[in-house]
Design goal:
The chain has 215 residues and is an alpha/beta fold. Helix content is 47%, strand content 16%. The protein has 10 helices and 8 strands. The strands form 2 sheets. The chain has a 6-stranded parallel beta sheet, with helices on both faces. A two-stranded antiparallel ribbon has the order 2-3. The longest helix is centred in the first third of the chain and has 18 residues, at 63-80. The radius of gyration is 17 Å and the shape is globular.
Length: 215
């Protein structure tokens, strides 16, 4: 049984796609850029909001304009990040069952740190022991730094930790940290993407995630 379960947030615990899509297009409209479809935004998610907006703005957009567009996105998203966002089915039950087994639970995300903390507190009150997002001190995935630091906070050996996520970035992060990865299929990527990137385990339901963690 693993002692520490570290989760990705967007596409794993929370369905945030609708609010991210709305904020991306709000920023793009503000600059007169073409809007993006929800499937495009789904593909662009995974490496943080800087990359999200770089991918969303038209090719050839100058860095100053990209930064300004990113600022508009951030301001809008921080006000509207809970408009349609909700936990995936059975996720809260999964976290409660893990706590009953005395398994520590953390989140390591490429989302803004303030947003990660606020969303975890809003949707998973009392269920997340540590939430880490991107800040000055926090490196973006697939860097393993935040996974390793989180394990250290709980005095956990890496062999006692497992990472759960929905994308190739999550698989790469886990392997860079030398921990196993459970890839879930209800998020922003499909099974083939996870398998192509060498995911250790695939789970289609919260029950399957639970069983892999406590086995």
């Amino acid at each position: 049984m693993y002692k520490l379960a570290i989760f990705d947030l967007d596409g794993t615990l929370l369905d945030t796609l609708g609010d991210l899509h709305a904020s991306v297009n709000f920023a793009l409209r503000d600059f007169g850029f073409p809007e993006r479809t929800i499937d495009e935004v789904r593909r662009f998610i995974g490496n943080g909001v800087v990359k999200l907006m770089e991918r969303s703005t038209p090719d050839g957009t100058d860095p100053v304009t990209q930064k300004a567009c990113l600022d508009v996105f951030r301001a809008h998203y921080l006000e509207h990040m809970s408009d349609t966002t909700a936990p995936y089915a059975n996720v809260i039950g999964l976290l409660k069952r893990l706590r009953e087994k005395d398994i520590k639970i953390a989140v390591v995300s490429n989302k803004l740190h303030s947003a990660v903390e606020e969303l975890c507190e809003s949707y998973f009150t009392g269920l997340i022991d540590k939430a880490v997002g991107v800040s000055v001190e926090a490196e973006r995935k697939p860097s393993p730094v935040n996974v390793i630091r989180t394990a250290e906070l709980f005095d956990s050996e890496l062999c006692d930790c497992i990472y759960i996520g929905d994308s190739e970035v999550d698989v790469q992060t886990a392997h860079n940290a030398n921990v196993k990865c459970i890839g879930i299929t209800w998020g922003f990527r499909d099974r083939d993407c996870l398998l192509d990137n060498g995911c250790d385990y695939i789970a289609e339901t919260a029950d399957e995630v639970y069983n892999l963690i406590i086995k």
